[in-house]
Amino acid sequence: MNKPAHHLFVCGSFRANGERQGVCHKKDSMSLLSYLQGEIQDRMLEGIEVAVTGCMNVCVKGPVMVDYPAGNYYRVPNTDALDAILDAIEGDTVAEEFLLT
């Protein structure tokens, strides 16, 4: 198994019972997830995996995404934010303007 350099976890607002609720879901995090997956393919980026998660409990900042193992928590309000984050990953930097603090 190849360990990804970046595993991007996008909040899907799933609860333990499987229901989607919360800010990230209401702000269409699933569309952002789809865009992210497509953009990674279009850019032919290797070493990046994407997954959807349950609620990450930072709803007031949502939608949110975590870059693991780097440990960067990002707010991703739109596709422009995802583009900036991917640009930063490609440049081996951090998209500071979207970091959660």
How would you describe the overall organization of this protein?
- The protein is of the alpha+beta class and 101 residues long.
- Helices cover 30% and strands 25% of the residues.
- A four-stranded mixed β-sheet has the order 2-1-3-4.
- Strand 3 and strand 4 form a beta hairpin.
- Helix 2 (29-42) runs parallel beside helix 3 (79-90).
- The longest helix has 14 residues, at 29-42.
- 28% of the residues are buried.
- The model has no long low-confidence stretch (mean pLDDT 91).
Secondary structure elements and pairings:
Blueprint: E1 6-14, H1 23-26, H2 29-42, E2 48-54, E3 64-68, E4 72-75, H3 79-90
Parallel strand pairs: 1-2
Antiparallel strand pairs: 1-3, 3-4
Helix pairs in contact: 2-3
Task: Give me some keywords for this one.
25% strand, Glutaredoxin, single chain, alpha+beta, 30% helix
Summarize the structure.
With 101 residues, this protein is an alpha+beta fold.
SSE string = EHHEEEH
Radius of gyration: 13 Å
Q: Indicate the percent of residues in helices.
A: 25-40%
Q: What is the CATH topology?
A: Glutaredoxin
Q: Structural class, from secondary structure content?
A: alpha+beta
- How is the biggest beta sheet arranged? 4 strands, mixed
Q: What is the mean predicted local confidence, pLDDT?
A: 91
Q: What's the domain count?
A: 1
CATH superfamily: Glutaredoxin
Low-confidence stretches: none
Tell me the fraction of residues in β-strands, as a range. Answer: 15-25%
Give the number of helices: 3
Shape: globular
Going by CATH, the architecture would be 3-Layer(aba) Sandwich
Q: How many strand elements?
A: 4
Strand order of the largest sheet: 2-1-3-4
Query: What is the CA-CA span between the terminal residues?
Result: 33 Å
The CATH class, by name, is Alpha Beta
